[in-house]
Amino acid sequence: MNPALLFRVLVLFLFTSMSMNAMFAFPQTENVPIERVLKNLESRLAQDTDNVEALYHLARVHSMAYSTNLAVVPVTKKEQAPHFKWEYGGSRIPEKVYPAADPKSKAAGQQHLTNAIIYYERASVQIFKGTNAEHHRWLIEPIFLGRAWCLDQAGRRDDAIKAYRKALQIAWHYEVEGDFTLKEQLEYSWDRIRAKQNPLTRAKRGSIGP
User: Fold this and answer.
1) How many CB atoms lie within 10 A of CB 168?
2) What is the end-to-end Cα distance of the chain in Å, rounded?
3) 60-104, pLDDT tens digit by residue?
């Protein structure tokens, strides 16, 4: 299967779900030079090498630097974390890759892509360790989709196809089949009781899917 087609399907699949659950309050941001953003994130990771959020942010910023040659990154003023969403919903995903014009910049872009893959690989392992999947649920699908996209951009077609399939499998599991905690299931059952309906049915993710 064509990796580009798999990517389009996954983006539509994931961000249809995400847009249905979009928040209406957006944090204040400021534009920060990319070098400083990467340095700050690397410092956080050095203090806690298991910090999956720092791993994801590093991967994402490097991948955006590769694809758009960006010089500044929007960062939340309160958390000082990269902010990737537009004000009215959606995600800051470039429509296409904008390659650098000169050899030096091209080499820098390829290094950003290499770094992105390394951080995505680490994040894809770390996200399922300990309680990370529970505490950072929102990171799971972007990590695996970002990893697949970067492998695709690196020309690793077979690896990219496998990665896209893995990302789709994970998205289907969480967004359609559902993976509920005991607390979520109890809240669902209580809502069913108040509605005078059967509380013993299994909760379903209502954002997308059948």
Assistant:
1) 19
2) 24
3) 999 999 988 888 888 888 888 888 764 434 444 566 787 778 888
CA angle 177, 182, 183 (to 5 degrees): 110
- Residue 127, Cα to own-chain centre: how many angstroms? 11
Q: What whole-number distance in Å separates Cα of residue 36 and Cα of residue 104?
A: 20
Q: Which pLDDT band, with edges at 50, 70 and 90, does 119 fall under?
A: very high
- Find the angle CA(67)-CA(73)-CA(75) to the nearest 5 degrees: 140
What does the chain look like in DSSP terms, one character per residue? Answer: --HHHHHHHHHHHHHHHHHHT--S----EEEEEHHHHHHHHHHHHHH-TT-HHHHHHHHHHHHHHHHH--SEEEEETTT--B--B-TTSSB---SS----SSHHHHHHHHHHHHHHHHHHHHHHHHTTSTTHHHHTGGGHHHHHHHHHHHHHHTT-HHHHHHHHHHHHHHHHIIIII----HHHHHHHHHHHHHTTS-TTSPP---SS--
Q: What is the reported pTM? A: 0.72
pLDDT, one tens digit per residue, over 135-175 is: 888 899 999 999 999 999 999 999 999 999 999 888 887 77
Q: For residue 20, what are the β-bridge partners?
A: none
